[in-house]
Amino acid sequence: MNILVLSSQASNTGSTLRGYYIYKSLKKAGMNAFYIPPPFKSMVFMADFALSFVYYFFALMNKNYDAVLIIKPYPNTVIPAMMLKIRGAKLIIDIDDLDHGYRDGVLSGIIEKMQHWLVKKADILTTHNNNLMKLLKARNPEFKNRIYMLKQCVDMAAFRVSARAAAAAKKAYKGQKMIFYTAHLNVASYLDEILAAFSLLKRDDVVLVVAGGGPLEGHYRKTARRMKLGGRVVFLGQTGQEETAALMSAADVCLVYYKNEEVNRYRASMKLREYLWAGNKTAATLVGEIKDFKKFVFGSAATPASYAAAINLALNGKKNTAAARRFIKKEYNWDHEGELFMRFLETVEKNGS
Fold first, then answer.
1. Does 332 or 351 have the greater pLDDT score?
2. Beta partners for residue 5, in sequence order
3. CATH of 2-153+333-351, one of 1.10.357.10, 3.30.70.260, 2.30.30.240, 3.40.50.2000
4. Global pTM value
Protein backbone atom coordinates (compact mmCIF):
# COMPACT_ATOMS: atom_id res chain seq x y z
CA MET A 1 0.00 0.00 0.00
CA ASN A 2 1.19 3.50 -0.89
CA ILE A 3 0.02 6.01 1.71
CA LEU A 4 0.44 9.77 1.81
CA VAL A 5 0.42 11.71 5.10
CA LEU A 6 -0.63 15.38 5.17
CA SER A 7 -1.15 17.89 7.98
CA SER A 8 -3.79 20.61 7.70
CA GLN A 9 -2.00 22.87 10.13
CA ALA A 10 1.22 24.85 9.76
CA SER A 11 4.72 23.43 9.88
CA ASN A 12 5.40 24.60 13.45
CA THR A 13 2.43 22.88 15.15
CA GLY A 14 2.11 19.80 17.32
CA SER A 15 -0.42 18.18 15.00
CA THR A 16 2.05 18.45 12.11
CA LEU A 17 4.66 16.79 14.28
CA ARG A 18 2.16 14.00 14.99
CA GLY A 19 1.67 13.56 11.25
CA TYR A 20 5.41 13.37 10.65
CA TYR A 21 5.82 10.76 13.39
CA ILE A 22 3.01 8.66 11.90
CA TYR A 23 4.66 8.83 8.48
CA LYS A 24 8.05 7.96 9.96
CA SER A 25 6.68 5.01 11.95
CA LEU A 26 4.85 3.56 8.93
CA LYS A 27 7.93 3.88 6.77
CA LYS A 28 10.06 2.20 9.41
CA ALA A 29 7.50 -0.61 9.65
CA GLY A 30 8.00 -1.27 5.92
CA MET A 31 5.08 0.57 4.33
CA ASN A 32 5.46 2.74 1.23
CA ALA A 33 4.72 5.95 3.09
CA PHE A 34 5.06 9.47 1.70
CA TYR A 35 4.93 12.86 3.38
CA ILE A 36 4.40 16.37 2.04
CA PRO A 37 5.45 18.85 4.75
CA PRO A 38 3.28 21.93 5.25
CA PRO A 39 4.74 24.83 3.26
CA PHE A 40 4.13 27.59 5.81
CA LYS A 41 4.45 28.43 9.49
CA SER A 42 1.42 29.73 11.37
CA MET A 43 0.14 33.06 10.09
CA VAL A 44 -2.22 35.67 11.48
CA PHE A 45 -5.89 35.30 10.58
CA MET A 46 -5.17 31.65 9.66
CA ALA A 47 -3.79 32.83 6.30
CA ASP A 48 -1.60 29.72 6.08
CA PHE A 49 -4.75 27.63 5.58
CA ALA A 50 -5.80 29.61 2.49
CA LEU A 51 -2.32 29.60 0.98
CA SER A 52 -1.70 25.93 1.66
CA PHE A 53 -4.99 25.02 -0.05
CA VAL A 54 -3.50 26.24 -3.34
CA TYR A 55 -0.20 24.50 -2.60
CA TYR A 56 -1.80 21.13 -1.85
CA PHE A 57 -4.20 21.39 -4.79
CA PHE A 58 -1.32 21.57 -7.27
CA ALA A 59 0.86 19.14 -5.29
CA LEU A 60 -1.82 16.41 -5.49
CA MET A 61 -3.17 17.15 -8.96
CA ASN A 62 -1.37 14.32 -10.78
CA LYS A 63 -0.62 12.00 -7.85
CA ASN A 64 -1.94 8.52 -7.10
CA TYR A 65 -1.92 6.74 -3.75
CA ASP A 66 -3.82 3.85 -2.20
CA ALA A 67 -4.59 5.94 0.87
CA VAL A 68 -4.15 9.45 2.21
CA LEU A 69 -4.07 10.22 5.93
CA ILE A 70 -4.91 13.81 6.87
CA ILE A 71 -4.21 15.24 10.31
CA LYS A 72 -7.21 17.45 11.22
CA PRO A 73 -10.24 17.92 8.94
CA TYR A 74 -9.82 21.28 7.23
CA PRO A 75 -10.65 22.28 3.63
CA ASN A 76 -7.03 23.07 2.71
CA THR A 77 -6.19 19.36 2.72
CA VAL A 78 -9.45 17.43 2.55
CA ILE A 79 -10.76 19.14 -0.60
CA PRO A 80 -7.53 18.62 -2.61
CA ALA A 81 -7.39 15.03 -1.29
CA MET A 82 -10.80 14.38 -2.80
CA MET A 83 -8.98 14.22 -6.14
CA LEU A 84 -7.08 11.23 -4.79
CA LYS A 85 -10.27 9.65 -3.47
CA ILE A 86 -11.91 9.97 -6.88
CA ARG A 87 -8.93 8.05 -8.27
CA GLY A 88 -9.48 5.27 -5.72
CA ALA A 89 -7.55 6.27 -2.60
CA LYS A 90 -8.94 5.62 0.86
CA LEU A 91 -9.39 8.88 2.74
CA ILE A 92 -8.34 8.64 6.40
CA ILE A 93 -8.86 11.62 8.70
CA ASP A 94 -7.09 11.86 12.04
CA ILE A 95 -8.96 13.91 14.65
CA ASP A 96 -6.61 14.97 17.44
CA ASP A 97 -8.65 17.73 19.09
CA LEU A 98 -12.01 19.43 19.33
CA ASP A 99 -10.69 22.42 17.41
CA HIS A 100 -13.86 24.48 17.78
CA GLY A 101 -13.53 24.25 21.58
CA TYR A 102 -10.63 26.72 21.56
CA ARG A 103 -12.75 29.39 19.86
CA ASP A 104 -15.80 31.39 20.89
CA GLY A 105 -19.03 32.49 19.28
CA VAL A 106 -19.60 32.38 15.54
CA LEU A 107 -16.10 31.17 14.67
CA SER A 108 -16.47 28.17 16.99
CA GLY A 109 -19.77 27.24 15.32
CA ILE A 110 -18.32 27.59 11.82
CA ILE A 111 -15.34 25.35 12.63
CA GLU A 112 -17.56 22.71 14.26
CA LYS A 113 -20.03 22.52 11.34
CA MET A 114 -17.28 22.62 8.72
CA GLN A 115 -15.28 19.81 10.32
CA HIS A 116 -18.40 17.70 10.86
CA TRP A 117 -19.14 17.99 7.13
CA LEU A 118 -15.55 17.20 6.11
CA VAL A 119 -15.37 14.17 8.41
CA LYS A 120 -18.24 12.61 6.46
CA LYS A 121 -15.97 12.50 3.38
CA ALA A 122 -13.61 10.05 5.09
CA ASP A 123 -13.53 6.29 4.70
CA ILE A 124 -11.76 5.79 8.04
CA LEU A 125 -11.27 7.96 11.12
CA THR A 126 -8.38 7.80 13.58
CA THR A 127 -7.96 9.44 16.96
CA HIS A 128 -5.74 9.26 20.05
CA ASN A 129 -8.01 9.80 23.06
CA ASN A 130 -10.65 7.51 24.58
CA ASN A 131 -13.08 10.36 25.27
CA LEU A 132 -12.66 11.57 21.71
CA MET A 133 -13.22 8.05 20.40
CA LYS A 134 -16.54 7.82 22.27
CA LEU A 135 -17.62 11.23 20.99
CA LEU A 136 -16.75 10.37 17.39
CA LYS A 137 -18.73 7.14 17.57
CA ALA A 138 -21.73 8.96 18.99
CA ARG A 139 -21.62 11.70 16.36
CA ASN A 140 -20.73 9.44 13.44
CA PRO A 141 -22.58 6.13 13.96
CA GLU A 142 -22.26 5.26 10.28
CA PHE A 143 -18.52 4.67 10.77
CA LYS A 144 -19.14 1.81 13.24
CA ASN A 145 -15.86 -0.17 13.20
CA ARG A 146 -14.08 2.31 10.95
CA ILE A 147 -12.67 4.43 13.79
CA TYR A 148 -9.15 3.39 14.78
CA MET A 149 -7.29 4.27 17.99
CA LEU A 150 -3.92 5.62 16.82
CA LYS A 151 -2.13 6.50 20.05
CA GLN A 152 -0.10 9.62 20.72
CA CYS A 153 3.38 8.17 21.07
CA VAL A 154 7.05 9.08 21.42
CA ASP A 155 9.89 8.75 18.94
CA MET A 156 12.21 6.96 21.34
CA ALA A 157 15.39 7.59 19.36
CA ALA A 158 14.76 11.34 19.03
CA PHE A 159 14.96 11.85 22.79
CA ARG A 160 18.13 9.91 23.51
CA VAL A 161 20.40 12.79 24.42
CA SER A 162 24.06 12.51 25.37
CA ALA A 163 25.23 13.82 28.72
CA ARG A 164 27.45 16.30 26.84
CA ALA A 165 24.51 17.75 24.87
CA ALA A 166 22.41 18.08 28.02
CA ALA A 167 25.29 19.77 29.88
CA ALA A 168 25.77 22.23 27.01
CA ALA A 169 22.06 23.11 27.09
CA LYS A 170 22.23 23.64 30.84
CA LYS A 171 25.39 25.77 30.70
CA ALA A 172 23.55 29.00 29.84
CA TYR A 173 21.54 28.66 33.06
CA LYS A 174 24.36 27.66 35.37
CA GLY A 175 23.54 28.12 39.04
CA GLN A 176 19.81 28.20 38.39
CA LYS A 177 17.06 25.63 38.47
CA MET A 178 15.79 25.30 34.92
CA ILE A 179 12.03 24.99 34.41
CA PHE A 180 11.22 24.02 30.83
CA TYR A 181 8.09 24.46 28.74
CA THR A 182 7.70 23.69 25.04
CA ALA A 183 4.61 24.30 22.92
CA HIS A 184 3.18 25.86 19.81
CA LEU A 185 2.24 29.18 21.34
CA ASN A 186 -1.41 29.49 20.36
CA VAL A 187 -4.79 29.51 22.12
CA ALA A 188 -4.21 25.98 23.45
CA SER A 189 -0.86 26.65 25.12
CA TYR A 190 -2.12 28.43 28.29
CA LEU A 191 1.20 30.15 28.89
CA ASP A 192 -0.62 33.05 30.62
CA GLU A 193 -1.53 30.67 33.45
CA ILE A 194 1.99 29.23 33.56
CA LEU A 195 3.49 32.72 33.84
CA ALA A 196 1.04 33.52 36.64
CA ALA A 197 2.10 30.37 38.50
CA PHE A 198 5.78 31.07 37.90
CA SER A 199 5.41 34.58 39.36
CA LEU A 200 4.14 33.01 42.59
CA LEU A 201 7.27 30.93 43.18
CA LYS A 202 9.04 33.82 44.95
CA ARG A 203 12.49 32.33 44.54
CA ASP A 204 15.57 33.74 42.81
CA ASP A 205 17.19 30.48 41.79
CA VAL A 206 14.80 29.53 38.96
CA VAL A 207 14.50 30.38 35.29
CA LEU A 208 11.59 29.51 33.00
CA VAL A 209 12.78 28.54 29.51
CA VAL A 210 10.08 28.60 26.81
CA ALA A 211 10.78 26.82 23.53
CA GLY A 212 8.31 27.37 20.71
CA GLY A 213 6.91 29.92 18.33
CA GLY A 214 3.40 30.63 17.18
CA PRO A 215 0.81 33.38 16.77
CA LEU A 216 0.77 34.29 20.48
CA GLU A 217 4.53 34.40 21.05
CA GLY A 218 4.57 38.21 20.93
CA HIS A 219 1.66 38.41 23.36
CA TYR A 220 3.40 36.15 25.86
CA ARG A 221 6.65 38.09 25.64
CA LYS A 222 4.76 41.30 26.40
CA THR A 223 2.93 39.59 29.27
CA ALA A 224 6.21 38.46 30.86
CA ARG A 225 7.60 42.01 30.61
CA ARG A 226 4.41 43.49 32.05
CA MET A 227 4.64 41.06 34.98
CA LYS A 228 8.25 42.24 35.52
CA LEU A 229 9.58 38.71 35.18
CA GLY A 230 12.53 40.08 33.22
CA GLY A 231 15.45 37.69 32.78
CA ARG A 232 13.67 35.03 34.82
CA VAL A 233 11.74 34.00 31.67
CA VAL A 234 13.68 33.18 28.50
CA PHE A 235 11.87 32.87 25.16
CA LEU A 236 13.88 30.85 22.64
CA GLY A 237 11.37 30.95 19.79
CA GLN A 238 11.01 27.92 17.54
CA THR A 239 13.66 25.29 18.28
CA GLY A 240 14.67 22.21 16.32
CA GLN A 241 14.06 18.72 17.62
CA GLU A 242 17.67 18.13 18.72
CA GLU A 243 17.84 21.40 20.65
CA THR A 244 14.43 20.77 22.22
CA ALA A 245 15.47 17.28 23.30
CA ALA A 246 18.71 18.61 24.82
CA LEU A 247 16.86 21.34 26.73
CA MET A 248 14.35 18.81 27.94
CA SER A 249 17.10 16.54 29.24
CA ALA A 250 18.84 19.47 30.93
CA ALA A 251 15.71 20.72 32.71
CA ASP A 252 15.14 20.31 36.42
CA VAL A 253 11.36 20.39 35.94
CA CYS A 254 9.14 20.30 32.84
CA LEU A 255 5.64 21.73 32.56
CA VAL A 256 2.25 20.68 31.17
CA TYR A 257 -0.76 22.89 31.86
CA TYR A 258 -4.35 22.27 30.77
CA LYS A 259 -7.21 24.45 31.91
CA ASN A 260 -10.12 22.60 33.47
CA GLU A 261 -12.28 23.00 30.37
CA GLU A 262 -14.32 20.56 28.31
CA VAL A 263 -12.05 20.81 25.28
CA ASN A 264 -9.09 19.49 27.28
CA ARG A 265 -10.85 16.19 28.02
CA TYR A 266 -10.21 15.30 24.37
CA ARG A 267 -6.48 16.00 24.16
CA ALA A 268 -3.49 13.65 24.36
CA SER A 269 -0.33 15.45 25.40
CA MET A 270 2.67 14.70 23.22
CA LYS A 271 5.01 16.71 25.42
CA LEU A 272 3.92 14.92 28.61
CA ARG A 273 4.90 11.60 27.06
CA GLU A 274 8.17 13.05 25.77
CA TYR A 275 9.03 14.59 29.15
CA LEU A 276 8.47 11.28 30.92
CA TRP A 277 10.46 9.32 28.34
CA ALA A 278 13.31 11.83 28.75
CA GLY A 279 13.31 11.06 32.48
CA ASN A 280 12.07 14.47 33.61
CA LYS A 281 10.28 15.48 36.75
CA THR A 282 7.05 16.98 35.45
CA ALA A 283 4.47 19.31 36.99
CA ALA A 284 1.08 18.86 35.36
CA THR A 285 -2.54 19.82 35.95
CA LEU A 286 -4.68 16.73 36.47
CA VAL A 287 -7.16 17.44 33.68
CA GLY A 288 -8.44 14.96 31.11
CA GLU A 289 -6.12 12.08 30.23
CA ILE A 290 -3.30 13.53 32.35
CA LYS A 291 -5.04 11.82 35.27
CA ASP A 292 -3.90 8.51 33.74
CA PHE A 293 -0.30 9.60 34.38
CA LYS A 294 -0.82 10.99 37.89
CA LYS A 295 1.54 8.58 39.63
CA PHE A 296 4.37 9.80 37.40
CA VAL A 297 3.83 13.58 37.72
CA PHE A 298 3.58 16.26 40.38
CA GLY A 299 -0.12 16.92 39.92
CA SER A 300 -2.16 19.99 40.66
CA ALA A 301 -5.51 21.63 40.16
CA ALA A 302 -5.83 24.00 37.20
CA THR A 303 -5.15 27.21 39.13
CA PRO A 304 -1.93 29.24 39.24
CA ALA A 305 -1.59 28.85 43.02
CA SER A 306 -2.01 25.08 42.98
CA TYR A 307 0.30 24.78 39.99
CA ALA A 308 2.98 26.91 41.63
CA ALA A 309 2.86 24.55 44.62
CA ALA A 310 3.27 21.55 42.29
CA ILE A 311 6.28 23.18 40.60
CA ASN A 312 7.87 23.77 44.00
CA LEU A 313 7.27 20.16 44.98
CA ALA A 314 8.84 19.02 41.71
CA LEU A 315 11.89 21.24 42.23
CA ASN A 316 12.45 19.81 45.69
CA GLY A 317 11.06 16.30 45.40
CA LYS A 318 11.63 13.00 43.63
CA LYS A 319 9.65 10.72 41.35
CA ASN A 320 10.33 7.25 40.00
CA THR A 321 11.43 8.44 36.58
CA ALA A 322 12.69 4.98 35.63
CA ALA A 323 9.18 3.54 36.11
CA ALA A 324 7.76 6.36 34.00
CA ARG A 325 10.21 5.58 31.19
CA ARG A 326 9.27 1.90 31.27
CA PHE A 327 5.59 2.80 31.10
CA ILE A 328 6.07 5.13 28.12
CA LYS A 329 8.22 2.59 26.27
CA LYS A 330 5.61 -0.12 26.74
CA GLU A 331 2.48 1.91 25.96
CA TYR A 332 3.54 4.81 23.73
CA ASN A 333 6.29 3.70 21.37
CA TRP A 334 5.90 4.93 17.77
CA ASP A 335 7.82 1.93 16.42
CA HIS A 336 5.26 -0.48 17.85
CA GLU A 337 2.30 1.76 17.05
CA GLY A 338 3.42 2.10 13.44
CA GLU A 339 3.54 -1.68 13.03
CA LEU A 340 0.03 -2.07 14.45
CA PHE A 341 -1.34 0.67 12.21
CA MET A 342 0.33 -0.84 9.16
CA ARG A 343 -1.34 -4.20 9.87
CA PHE A 344 -4.70 -2.45 10.22
CA LEU A 345 -4.23 -0.67 6.88
CA GLU A 346 -3.16 -3.90 5.18
CA THR A 347 -6.31 -5.60 6.50
CA VAL A 348 -8.43 -2.72 5.19
CA GLU A 349 -6.77 -3.04 1.78
CA LYS A 350 -7.18 -6.83 1.71
CA ASN A 351 -10.86 -6.67 2.64
CA GLY A 352 -11.53 -3.73 0.35
CA SER A 353 -13.44 -1.99 3.17
1. 332
2. 35, 69
3. 3.40.50.2000
4. 0.94
